[in-house]
Amino acid sequence: MVHEVLAPGPQQRYDLDANDESLPLLQDLMRRYGDICRVPTQSRPHDGLVIHDADDIRRVLLTNRDNYVKGVGLERVRVLLGNGLIVNDGESWSRQRRMMQPVFHSQVIRGFSSLMRRLNLELIERWAGHAARGEPINLTRELSDLALNIMLHALFSADFDRLIEAEGTSPFDLLTLESRRDLPFAAKFRALTRHVLAMIAARRKEQRIEMDLLSMLMEARDKDSGEAMPDRALLDESMTLIVAGHETTASTLNWTWYLLSQHPEVEARLHEAVAATAPPPAEEPLAENSYVEQVLHEALRMYPPGWLFTRRALGDDRLGGYHVPAGTDIFICPYLLHRHAAHWDRPEEFDPERFVPAAADARHRFAFLPFSAGPRYCIGAAFAMAEMTMHLSMVAQRFRLQYVGNEPPQAEFQINLRTRRDVHMRVVAR
Ligand code: HEM
Predict the structure, then answer these.
(1) Which of 135, 171, 201, 209 is the most buried (most CB within 10 A)?
(2) Is the pLDDT of residue 3 over 80?
(3) CA 343 vs CA 120, 261, 301, 362, 364: distances in Å
(4) Tell me, what's the pLDDT at 178?
(5) In this structure, how many other beta carbons lie within 10 angstroms of the beta carbon of residue 413?
(6) CA–CA separation, 352 and 350 (whole Å)
(7) Distance (Å) from CA 22 to ligand 1 centroid
(8) So what's the pLDDT on residue 59?
(9) 350 Cβ partners below 8 Å, 6+ apart?
(10) Ligand 1 neighbours (beta carbon < 6 A)
(11) Extents of the domains making up the chain
């Protein structure tokens, strides 16, 4: 029957996953089969289906979203994050998302700008020392520390400072000190949950409410039942925010600085833009659609941290004119979508002009998905943009960063798209 024709694809069986081997295969399949390709599975219950067409992606993420749940690859994440928002699904996800949405309201994020400013000022002071001594910085490490500290302070505020005081150092530094995301790491990371449980217990006992994300999560109530989140959910959501909010932003900034160091004309325009807009006072909203934002969007286009994500079809569907049987594992690859000839000219060129409002508005809304789209859109996107714009504006006003190294950094395609090795930069005062 014509309507049951399956999408074309190779004979060879393969379990696609967010790892380095999958990207060359995905590139090859796209060359051979175009925008939709069925990949027979090796060991999973159902075949995979890779989709690159923006309309098909819109159908999966938005218009027919009830037919799709989170897909393969989440087992690894579940070990780390329990049943937090990224992993959760169905009614339980919906309830948690509803309760957490207000926590990421722009007004709340604005409240964190003085924290973001303070931690960036500390970083600038440290980097000024490096500039004076002519000593390069380990940029990757510095940005990882910055993003982690912003997240931990936003979540736990004074309790986080108390923890550092009690332990002599932050036990969460594990996240920046270890780059592998394997099972031994997961075990150590889960051991950190006791600190979070202790903070929750102390706040309950002292009936203490802080101006931070943890207190907002503790105060959130389900609008139907009036119930608060159980401790288990508070814990899983806190751990989720730490992981989801740390590596993604750090990696984007890491790539952004590298790209700027290779494109003096963009760097010069950025300098002009940040000179014109001194960092806004902490209470003021950050300008939208600024050149700073365009630079960040272009870095997110070229190196989207969430470079491959998945869904699973609950019932039969149709995509690209082909039959999609229930159970099919769908793969969406922002890395390839962001280079797709249908939407992008000269895709390997770093050109923030692509994001001037007129150009962005003319593009298919599902051609640029660094934060995904639809109801499972990244809940922290505005937080991330505020944090990254603040960092880039404040630092670019003071310094230029010059890449130290002869070879361009290699990309590592794991759960996140990071540089394979740490990037080192010379800091030059402007
Ligand atoms: C540049 C920075 C970031 C990028 C590129 C990014 C990207 C993404 C993507 C692609 C997804 C969807 C994954 C999927 O559907 O499978 C997602 C979900 C999520 N992100 Fe982000 N993210 C960033 C920053 C943040 C920050 C700062 C936070 C927290 C403060 C955060 C928290 C989350 C959470 C909780 C989800 C799950 C949402 C849900 O399923 O309802 N992210 N992010």
Answers:
(1) 171
(2) no
(3) 35, 26, 12, 10, 7
(4) 85
(5) 21
(6) 7
(7) 22
(8) 98
(9) 259, 262, 263, 266, 298, 299, 302
(10) 85-86, 97, 240-241, 244-245, 248-249, 252, 305-306, 309, 370-372, 376, 378-380, 383-384
(11) 2-8+16-33+40-429
Query: Which two structure tokens, joined as six digits, stand for 389?
Result: 């714009």
Nearest to 241 by CA among 422, 121, 381: 381
The amino acid occupying position 239 is: M
Nearest CA to ligand 1 atom 27: 245
Question: What is the 110 CA–ligand 1 centroid distance (Å)?
Answer: 19
How far does the centroid of ligand 1 lie from the alpha carbon of residue 125, in Å? 30
The CA distance from 212 to 177, in Å, is: 25
Q: Which CATH architecture has domain 2-8+16-33+40-429?
A: Orthogonal Bundle (1.10)
Closest residue CA from atom 24 of ligand 1? 245
Model confidence at 183, pLDDT cuts 50, 70, 90, reads confident
| DSSP summary character for residue 370 | T
Please give the average per-residue pLDDT across 111-133, as a whole number. 96
Please tell me the total number of residues recorded for the chain in this structure.
430
- Beta strand 137-138 pairing with 424-429: antiparallel
| pTM of the model as a whole | 0.96
**How many C-beta atoms lie closer than 10 Å to residue 365's C-beta?**
12
What the block records as the tokens of 243 is 């992981």
Most distant pair of Cα atoms in the chain: their distance: 73
Strands 309-313 and 329-332, sheet pairing: antiparallel
Contact in structure between 401 and 392 (CB atoms under 8 Å): no
Q: How far apart are CA 348 and CA 259, in angstroms?
A: 11
Show contacts of 67-70: CB within 8 Å, 24+ apart.
67/313, 67/314, 67/315, 67/317, 68/311, 68/312, 68/313, 68/314, 68/330, 69/311, 69/312, 69/314, 70/310, 70/311, 70/312, 70/376
Cα 249 to ligand 1 centroid, rounded to whole Å: 10
Identify which of 378, 389, 415 to mutate to test ligand 1's pocket (most ligand atoms within 8 A of the CB). 378
**What does the block give as tokens for 43?**
């060991």
Instruction: Give 370 Cα–ligand 1 centroid separation in angstroms.
Output: 9
Question: Of 47-56, 106-115, 274-283, 392-401, which gets the smallest average pLDDT?
Answer: 274-283
209-264 confidence digits (pLDDT tens): 999 999 999 999 999 999 999 999 999 999 999 999 999 999 999 999 999 999 99
3-state SS track over 297-311 = HHHHHHCCCCCCEEE
Instruction: Please say whether the beta carbons of 175 and 148 come within 8 A.
Output: yes
Which residues lie below 8 Å from residue 288, measured CB to CB, with a gap of 6+?
A: none
Q: What's the rounded mean pLDDT across residues 187-196? A: 93
